[in-house]
Amino acid sequence: MSIEYVVVSEGEQDEPIELPTEEDGSLLLSTISAQFAGASGLKYRAGGRLRGLRLTEDRVLPPAEGWAAHRYFCAFPRTDAPSPTPRPRCSDLIVLGLPWKTGEEAVRDYFAAFGDLLMVQVKRDAKTGLSKGFGFIKFADYEAQLRALGRRHMIDGRWCDVRIPNSKDGGSAAHRKVFVGRCTESLTADDLREYFGAFGQVTDVFVPKPFRAFSFVTFLDPEVAQSLCGQDHIIKGVSVNISTASPKRERGARSQLLGWGLLEGGAPRVYSWPPDAWQHSAHSAHSTAPPDAKLYLKYE
Questions:
Q1: pTM attached to this predicted model
Q2: 91 φ, ψ to 5°?
Q3: Residue 198: CA atoms inside 13 Å, Cβ hemisphere, count?
Q4: Could you tell me which residues are beta bridge partners of residue 174?
Q5: Of the residues 47, 57, 84, 201, which has the maximum number of CB atoms within 10 A of its CB?
Q6: Beta strands 202-206 and 153-155: pairing type?
Q7: Residue 139 forms beta bridges with which residues?
Q8: Which of 216, 98, 69 is nearest to 157 (CA)?
């Protein structure tokens, strides 16, 4: 086959140059890149759409209709492609509430259903050798870790919880935990878990008993928890406020009474004022609140 010249340009609107083909009718990629540095192939427009040419052993093959049917321009590797997201690393997980009789083999057999395990350890008393009622596990796959964190576990007839220890990935529990104020007794732990699960993985929900008009929700990702702070949310018709869950000693020193909740016709109605608009101190609020008022505390 005689040598043929192919009309090629760097871009679709750029001035073209003619490049020689080989005797077999192909165009060497080295011939293209010698004129257009970084080019990785050729493409052309047909019927309003772009089409690429096949590349075999560093040779660009002509289209079925031949080189002369089209004008070609260079294809370049994408440089704006997003870098791959680093794969999250698995954490050591603490398993709480293990029965005293449960050993490492039973723990491994149970959690193997979620994924491959790298480590299983049941903590035991150094003197007696008896289980302390908790242990640690670590998965090989991050998705397996998420599945285990997203539910409670029945192990040897007892409910157990799986959590990320405070000192491990995600920072301290305080950074992953939020305070949910203005709760009503109609809001259950399942209601809170279902609602906040839409924002991120929820690892724990605590509703105090007896009822105290607040709850705590702990997320797997501390960024999710912090992004919700300072917001009001409506959960099953109840307006709740989200704030940072401060450590107990800080919370006790900085707590402020911002309002009270009233029960009118059996339905909760919550009032809230900013600190500078509150007309009564926490000590006098009991005497000035309406007789059916139910006091609540929101911690800043």
A1: 0.36
A2: -105, 160
A3: 7
A4: none
A5: 201
A6: unpaired
A7: 117
A8: 98
Residues 167-184, mean pLDDT to the nearest whole number: 72
H/E element, 124: strand 117-124
CB 196 within 8 Å of CB 235:
no
pLDDT at 174: 63
**Residue 231 in contact with residue 208, Cβ under 8 Å?**
no
For residue 169, the one-letter residue type is: D
88 upstream amide cis, omega within 30 of 0 = no
Hey, which bits of 125-244 come out as E strands? Answer: 131-139, 153-155, 158-163, 177-181, 202-206, 214-219, 232-235, 238-244
What pLDDT, in 10s, does the model give residues 110-129? 999 999 999 999 998 888 88
Pairing state between β 177-181 and 238-244: antiparallel
Looking at the chain, how many residues does it have? Answer: 300
What are the φ/ψ torsions at residue 78 (nearest 5 degrees)? -70, 130
Place of tokens 């501390």: 222
Contact (CB, 8 A) for 107 and 122: yes
| C-alpha to C-alpha distances, 125 to 8, 30, 150, nearest whole angstrom | 77, 70, 29
CA–CA dist 171, 259 (Å, integer)? 32
The neighbouring-strand residues paired with 95 are 135, 162
User: What pairs with residue 160 in β-bridges?
Assistant: 153
Contact 215/150 with Cβ under 8 angstroms?
no
Tell which residue, 185, 299, 173, 187, has the closest CA to residue 243.
299
3-state secondary structure of 226: helix
